[in-house]
Amino acid sequence: MARCIICLTETPDAELTDEHIFPEAIGGRIVIGSVCKPCNDKLGNTIDHRLTEHWLVQGQRMLLKLPGKTGQIPNPLERGVMRDEPSQKLIYKMDANGLPKELYTVASVERIPGDDGRETVAIRIDKSDAPKLLGMVNKIRARAGQPPMTQAEIDAAQVVTKVEKPWMHMRLGIDVVEYKRAIIKIAYELAWRWLGDAYLDDPMAAQIRACLLDGEGWSAKELVRGKIDFVGEKPTYPFWHDGTKSHLAFSMAVPEGIVVYVRVFELFEGTILVSESPARYGDFEGKFLRNDPVTGNVREVDLVDEFARLGDDAVPEE
Q: How much is the pTM?
């Protein structure tokens, strides 16, 4: 029997499930078998999802060609409207490799009333949907009690328009709050990995679990001490950089206790106070982790060894 590190329920080892600390959809390779299935399912749907489906993260996944569980590479540029005709919806399609394929016109139906009380129906479709037009037209006519048209009649009534170099406009909503709980979750799971089972009984661990389990009300409660934000042009620790957008994390002692730093791609970073009681962990040594989402390579070493690799100038001041 072992405790689930999220709900602390005593669970048979065989019923604990694999949990990716950095979500698998963003190339996470560190797996811990310490979360019960109900918690794994719940937090995957309510927390991990906020990070993996974040518009900025989807953009990185598209550029790095990181598929989700369905095997599909995300397309954050998928839906928009025509710039010169905002009522016309468009879809920007990508191929299986995440490369631009085509701009697709979403079918639309416009009903135009006439002065004589009769109604004209205008149907706009993408050229690739031309074989479907006969069925669409006759379905509408059948509902109106009109006789069906032949393919020849439809062909004669068609107007084919080609838009040269069409522009697509998109309206974006960028989450600036909910993704933060995923960063907290990563920090919590790394704290347990590096501090051991004793961490589950740490008062700060209890506060972080309350944040993770609190659902929609979590952001209103000041349960977690730390800072989480967009990386922007100046990451907190600029001496860690690479061309693969790796995920980074480390733990270290500070005057307030022990913190875990997390960076996802080069988009989000957070420094979370995971314990105010370093004395609980008398042999505590800081750890460092780098997870390359493209190659799957992971480097996990003592923090002092990582600082030695980087050089003395990289050691942050307390």
A: 0.86
